[in-house]
């Protein structure tokens, strides 16, 4: 015997009769006829194999078995109501958790102000942030360690993810303001001290891909893990670096570094939000991505 085989509306009728101890009052509460209530109770009793109520001149009285059945139904309905309320609370973002993966650079340069706005709008959503490189972030989303990751495209195994482009970026070469040139020819790059990001790095992979497309062969002098440290090295005129233009505009404005003109051809890229295509996003995750798109589409 299983609830899957039973019309669950019969439970609703039973609970109304138990509450009011009356077929008449139960029918009024449920907006159905008295015969329909009586028929429903009979169907339920037949299914269970025993009497739930005893008729009296003043209404109905639950049997001992009816009392036990009511306790079980009441507890089940309470759990169901809690589930409904929980779902409603989550869907309205009155509570929930959001696990975001990204690089510290993207967080500082792109996401921080947006996360501040999102947190003020949805203060009951607990936000957890994981800082990692693109290779790890892809693995974290695939293994459900994070709900989403925000990273530079392209990525490997893109077919395993839902990809939502957020922000277009452009690459450039940067140098110290004391660097003697304002223009760097791609053919002379092999003679320069080049600073690159340490592997694993999607930026490093993309730079090497662009070098191949530009038919340029470069041997780096410095390999640095931190994006911020690359800018520090460049500021001290320890070499020139290939980086994301939008991430260094403040440093250019403040006179720390300068952007070099060049005939080295670079293609624009996208920063995107990725989620697994085999799991369903939480309400918080969906809202975060939707508002992220709105935020950057208006800029």
Short descriptors:
299 residues, alpha/beta, Arc Repressor Mutant, subunit A, D-Maltodextrin-Binding Protein, domain 2, 5-stranded mixed β-sheet, rod-shaped
Largest sheet: 6 strands, mixed
Helix/strand-derived category reads alpha/beta
Please tell me the total number of domains.
Answer: 3
Which CATH architecture of the largest domain? 3-Layer(aba) Sandwich
Overall geometry: rod-shaped
Query: What's the total helix number?
Result: 10
Radius of gyration: 32 Å
Report the β-strand fraction as a percent range.
15-25%
Order of helices and strands: HHHEEHEHEHEEEEEHEHEHEEH
Strand element count: 13
How much helical structure, as a percent, in the residues? 40-55%
Q: How is this structure best described in words?
A:
The chain is of the alpha/beta class and 299 residues long. The chain folds into three domains: 3-91, Winged helix-like DNA-binding domain superfamily/Winged helix DNA-binding domain (Arc Repressor Mutant, subunit A, Orthogonal Bundle); 96-168 and 270-297, D-Maltodextrin-Binding Protein, domain 2; 171-267, Periplasmic binding protein-like II (D-Maltodextrin-Binding Protein, domain 2, 3-Layer(aba) Sandwich). The protein contains ten helices and 13 strands. The chain has helices at residues 9-20, 23-30, 34-48, 64-91, 104-121, 134-142, 202-213, 227-235, 245-253, 283-297, and strands at residues 53-56, 59-62, 96-102, 125-131, 148-152, 161-169, 171-176, 183-184, 194-197, 222-224, 240-244, 257-262, 269-276. A six-stranded mixed sheet has the order 8-12-7-11-9-10, sandwiched between helices. Strands 4-3-5-13-6 form a five-stranded mixed sheet, with helices on both faces. Strand 9 (194-197), helix 7 (202-213) and strand 10 form a beta-alpha-beta unit. Helix 1 packs across helix 2 (23-30), helix 1 (9-20) crosses helix 3 (34-48) and helix 2 crosses helix 3 (34-48). It is rod-shaped, with a radius of gyration of 32 Å.
């Amino acid at each position: 015997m299983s609830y899957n085989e039973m019309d669950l509306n019969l439970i609703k009728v039973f609970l109304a009769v138990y509450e009011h101890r009356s077929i008449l009052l139960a029918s009024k509460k449920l907006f159905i006829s008295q015969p329909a209530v009586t028929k429903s109770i009979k169907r339920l009793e037949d299914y269970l194999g025993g009497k739930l109520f005893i008729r009296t001149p003043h209404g109905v009285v639950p049997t001992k078995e009816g009392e036990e059945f009511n306790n079980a139904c009441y507890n089940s309905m309470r759990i169901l109501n809690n589930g409904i309320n929980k779902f409603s609370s989550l869907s309205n973002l009155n509570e929930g958790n959001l696990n975001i993966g990204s690089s510290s650079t993207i967080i500082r340069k792109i996401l921080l102000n947006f996360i501040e706005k999102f947190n003020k709008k949805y203060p009951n959503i607990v936000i957890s942030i994981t800082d990692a490189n693109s290779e790890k972030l892809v693995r974290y989303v695939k293994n459900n360690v994070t709900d989403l990751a925000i990273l530079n495209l392209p990525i490997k195994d893109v077919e395993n993810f839902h990809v939502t482009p957020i922000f277009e970026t452009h690459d450039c070469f940067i140098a110290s303001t004391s660097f003697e040139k304002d223009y760097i020819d791609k053919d002379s790059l092999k003679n320069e001290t080049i600073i690159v990001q340490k592997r694993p790095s999607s930026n490093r992979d993309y730079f090497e891909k662009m070098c191949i497309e530009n038919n340029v062969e470069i041997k780096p002098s410095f390999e640095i893990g931190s994006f911020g440290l690359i800018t520090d090295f460049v500021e001290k005129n320890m070499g020139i670096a290939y980086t994301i233009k939008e991430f260094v505009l403040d440093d250019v404005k403040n006179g720390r570094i300068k952007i070099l003109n060049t005939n080295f051809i670079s293609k624009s890229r996208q920063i995107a939000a990725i989620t697994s295509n085999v799991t369903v996003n939480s309400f918080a995750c969906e809202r975060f991505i939707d508002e992220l798109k709105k935020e950057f589409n208006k800029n």
